[in-house]
Design goal:
It contains four helices and eight strands, in the order αβαββααβββββ. It is of the alpha+beta class. The strands form two sheets. The chain has a six-stranded mixed beta sheet with strand order 2-8-4-5-6-7, sandwiched between helices. It has a two-stranded antiparallel ribbon with strand order 1-3. The longest helix is centred in the first third of the chain and has 19 residues. The two termini are 13 Å apart.
Length: 181
């Protein structure tokens, strides 16, 4: 698990250094509106441990998380879609594919907290799935696929960062094998 932490930290530090280094869209990043009460890592394990196979896992890097108000989530999601379309519009194959977009989505949502001078870790994660059914604008894919999951005032949502589409967690039916928060 230590190498995964280092990879995530590297991604977040790289992205935030680029954001604060003058990318024009940082100024347009919406200020998050939090949804309370906070969730603990124990709350997250209680929610998701039942859905994953015992050989798989739920990984939480922080002790406390906070959701977003649903309207704030929609604004953040639209902002991310704008960033994605502006900076990452061309297909580059596996050099920047589903896992890269999912971790970018998580990192940029977390970075939005800096605009609020808040210490709340937004409850957004990356999920690994077996993408056996068409969902969220993507056809069936052989093997693993990475998506995002986020907690809002309207409940949990699964997000496809490459299309900007989202669905209620309870309506998402592809098998989820791992949750990373």
């Amino acid at each position: 698990m230590q190498p995964l932490k280092l990879i995530l930290l590297g991604i977040i530090l790289t992205l935030t250094s680029h954001l604060f280094g003058g990318l024009p869209l940082f100024d347009s990043m919406p200020v998050p509106e939090y949804h309370y009460p906070r969730q603990t890592y124990l709350d997250i394990h209680e929610k998701f441990d039942k859905r994953v196979d015992p050989s798989e896992k739920v990984v939480c890097f922080d002790n406390y998380y906070v959701g977003l108000k649903f309207d704030s989530f929609k604004k953040q999601n639209a902002w991310f879609s704008e960033v994605r379309n502006h900076y990452f519009s061309k297909e580059v194959g596996e050099s920047f594919d589903c896992d890269n977009f999912a971790f970018l989505y998580k990192a940029l949502f977390t970075t939005a907290s800096f605009k609020k001078n808040a210490r709340g870790q937004i409850l957004v994660g990356v999920i690994l799935v077996e993408h056996t059914n068409e969902f969220l604008g993507l056809e069936e894919i052989a093997g693993k696929h990475a998506l995002n999951i986020i907690y809002t005032s309207n409940g949990w949502y699964v997000v496809e960062a490459r299309t900007g589409k989202f669905i209620e967690y309870k309506k998402y039916t592809n098998p989820i094998t791992e949750y990373i928060f």
